[in-house]
Amino acid sequence: MSGGLEPSTTARCTILTSEGILNVELWAKEFPKTTRRFLENCIKGLYDGVPFIEKPGGTIILTGEIGCDPVGSVESNTRVRFDRRGLLASFPSSKGAFAITLCDNSHLEGKATVFGKLVDSTYYSVLRICGKELKADSDEFLYPAWVKSISVEEPYFKDLIGHEASAPKTISDAVKPQRKRPVKKRVRLEYEEEGDDQEDALSNIKIRAAHDLLNDKRLVRETPPLGNLGSAESRLPQKSSKNTASSNVEHEASPSDAKKVGHSPDDGSGSGSQKPLDVTQAEPEGHDLTQRERETLKLLEQFKKTSSKNKQFASHQLNFGGQAP
Predict the structure, then answer these.
(1) What is the pLDDT at residue 209?
(2) How far apart are CA 83 and CA 89, in angstroms?
(3) Looking at the domain assignment, is residue 289 inside a domain?
(4) Range 6-10, long-range pairs (CB < 8 A, 24+ positions)
(5) Can you tell me the distance from the alpha carbon of 250 to that of 240, in angstroms, rounded to the nearest whole number?
(6) What pLDDT does 280 receive?
(7) Which residue ranges have biased composition labelled Polar residues (predicted)?
(8) Same domain? 24 vs 108
(9) Most buried residue, 17, 29, 113, 210, by most Cβ within 10 Å?
(10) pLDDT of residue 4
(11) What pLDDT was estimated at residue 251?
(12) Are residues 21 and 156 in the same domain?
């Protein structure tokens, strides 16, 4: 019969076996006698340790008797039938034993009462139970599985004595202890102390000038007095006179230019017969020439002598006292 036409279940329990968990829902409203007796035996703990003793014909697995009074009659409902595996049934003459179907058992209609079904894919535990080895030439199990306990979550009957609503037991709860969550250690970061240490380290650093670290005469350790500024300014025109002397040497007239203006090259008179200026004497007083400046003056002196001996004309005309060439 299709599950859509079946009535809704009204009770629920969990069977914990040695091979796993069986979640069971019961039709307590449709089969009150059989369901009530089954729930009373579960609450009293009469099924604890009861084995699954046999597998008659390979169609059902049957538990052992627990010694209670039999129901004595079969309860039936046209909407619930032996039409599939995973159904919970009971025989009217049994003393508390119940069976679980392994296939379609239509031949049991009117002979046993179907009062529950397995849910939540727990039928795999039934397969492990019925897969146990059987005795030779017998339907009994050689090493049977057994029921550890049965917990009732929804009894449906409010007058059941000794019932306490509890969460279903699981194998993981029975075997594995609950793990405690590790406590995380908190680390406190203090930035203020680190900042104070850095400030103290920076305050101990002394900044020194380059003239204190290097032995260089060009670096002045002290600020020069204001009185020396006049001597520094007096050096500027002296440098310009030195440059004028150098230009006079470069533009000195040749002998041919002297003849054009009516003077001999050896004659000291006239504006064109000027004696050569000694560049070494152009050095201003109180001023020390560098080595580069001395070499430049020497080269200018040599150029002047060479040009006077060769009597070469300059590349431009000279103006001697405003006379025409």
Answers:
(1) 73
(2) 12
(3) yes
(4) 6/79, 6/80, 7/77, 7/79, 7/80, 9/116, 9/117, 10/154, 10/156
(5) 15
(6) 47
(7) 237-248, 309-325
(8) yes
(9) 113
(10) 58
(11) 46
(12) yes
| SS3 letters across 211-223 | HHHCCCCCCCCCC
Residues 121-148: tens digit of each pLDDT: 899 999 999 999 999 999 999 999 999 9
Q: Is residue 185 part of a domain?
A: no
* Cβ atoms 48, 58 nearer than 8 A: no
**Distance of alpha carbon 194 from alpha carbon 223, whole angstroms:** 40
pTM for this one?
Answer: 0.50
Residues 6 or more apart whose Cβ sits within 8 Å of residue 46: 66, 68, 96
Q: Are residues 135 and 277 in the same domain?
A: no
DSSP conformation letters of 148-178? EEEEEEE-S-TT-TT----PPP-HHHHHSPP
How far, in Å, CA of 312 to CA of 306, rounded?
9
**Long-range CB pairs of 280-288, under 8 A, 24+ apart, other chains included:** 282/241, 282/242, 282/245, 282/246, 283/242, 284/235, 284/238, 284/239, 284/241, 284/242, 286/231, 287/235, 287/238
Residues 16 and 132 occupy one common structural domain: yes
What are the φ and ψ backbone dihedral angles of 286, each rounded to 5 degrees?
75, 10
CATH assignment of the domain containing 169: 2.40.100.10
Cα–Cα distance, 144 to 238 (Å, whole number):
127
Count the Cβ atoms, other than its own, within 10 Å of residue 40: 19
Residue 44 CA to residue 70 CA, distance in Å, equals 16
- Kindly state whether residue 135 falls inside one of the protein's structural domains: yes
Q: Which residues of the chain have pLDDT under 70?
A: 1-4, 161-179, 190-204, 211, 219-288, 310-325
Does residue 268 lie within any of the structural domains? yes
Domain holding 263, by residue range, is 236-310
Q: Tell me, what's the pLDDT at 304? A: 84
**CA nearest 246: which of 274, 278, 285?**
278
Give the number of domains in the chain: 2
The per-residue pLDDT for 246 is: 47
* Other C-beta atoms lying within 10 Å of the C-beta of residue 217: 6
Task: Write down which residue in 175, 209, 225 finishes a domain.
Answer: 175
